[in-house]
Amino acid sequence: MPVIDVHSHDVPRGWPDLGQATGAPGPWPSLHLDGERDAMIMLGDREFRRITDQCWDPEVRAADMDADGVDLQVVSPTPVFFSYERTPTEATAVARIFNDLTLEICARLPERLVPFCQVPLQDVAAAVAELERSLDAGHRGVEIGNHVGDRDMDDPGTVEFLQHCASLGVPVFVHPWDMGASPRTTRWMAQWLVGMPAETHLSILAMILGGAFDRIDPSLRICFAHGGGSFPYWLGRLENAWHQRPDLVGVSAQPPSAYLDRFSVDSVVFDPRALRLLVDTMGPERVMMGSDYPYPLGERPAGAVVREADFLDERERTLILGGNAETFLDLTTTPSREA
Which of 73, 230, 264, 312 would you label with 138, given CA atoms 20 to 30 Å apart? Predict the structure, then answer.
């Protein structure tokens, strides 16, 4: 059984000027190269994130995978490029650029890197068109952000897009992004330490309480990043609220716990106690190994907590390290828009 990392990101080593490519004023992301191996992602004239050649060099990535004992890695966009705040035309142009560049990176190591595309999620027709173009070009799935402005995962357009993914058999990876900034969250990376778990928790609630799971075919394969955020810890509170306040919370067709078999989560929780809660809550069939490679807040070696968890039996460990991801990615077939 191969070991599969379902949560990693790439950044190409440069891209066309996005202002020129879209015909729209900035600020746009750009890359300032500081040498062969180091660079800084810029947002206009503001520094966003320092990165290394782990982001763009598949040979460096493969060496790290070998060191960590990873056979396959899903390569998804870095969310800063989603461009959901832009017009659909502008976001489509950006998606095409980064989707094509991701394919170039993965094509250099096709037996080990599984490309996921991005789409202009703010417009369902444009999102479907770019998804289908990307699948035809070689992408195996799609990563989406967990919200578009104030539109969460139960937004009709997002639900329509997810239903289309279900009809095509395309796996969907949901990543939190665009966390609200305030003086309370700009210290200590609190947007990432508090905001990201809360964003994912809220969006799973939207899928359940907003009725998205009730409206989408159960065949949809969808995974939420970062262990589902704070959702697993607070499922009991949600379940209690559903029963005690049916006027406000009991709005889904079934209690929240009935939807746990409708989605998966990755294992990026860093602590065996958290992983135990995650597996106890979701079941070992609904957790997949992820690392958030190559970013500093990711897990290295990838899968270390899963491998070292003494409460997992070998069947459960095998499922989490790769078996569940084989099913999620449907590695025996290629998604087709004629499906």
Answer: 264
Does the predicted model carry a pTM greater than 0.90? Answer: yes
Task: List, in sequence order, every beta strand (DSSP E) within the chain.
Answer: 4-10, 29-33, 38-43, 46-52, 72-77, 113-117, 141-145, 172-175, 222-224, 264-266, 287-288
Q: What are the pLDDT digits (tens) for 141-166?
A: 999 999 999 999 999 999 999 999 99
Count of domains forming the chain: 1
Please provide residue 133's backbone torsions phi and psi, each rounded to the nearest 5 degrees: -60, -45
Question: CA–CA separation, 265 vs 282, rounded Å?
Answer: 8
- Residue 72's alpha-carbon distances to 6, 114, 138, 264, 331, in angstroms, are 8, 7, 16, 18, 11
Range of the domain at 292: 4-10+57-329
Looking at residue 131, which CATH number applies to its domain? 3.20.20.140
6 burial type by CB count under 10 A (0-12 exposed, 13-18 middle, 19+ buried):
buried
Q: Is residue 135 domain-resident?
A: yes
How do residues 51-87 score in pLDDT, each as one tens digit? 999 999 999 999 999 999 999 999 999 999 999 999 9
Cα distance between residue 211 and residue 151, in whole Å: 14
| Residue 50 belongs to a domain | no
Phi/psi at 327 (nearest 5 deg)? -70, -45
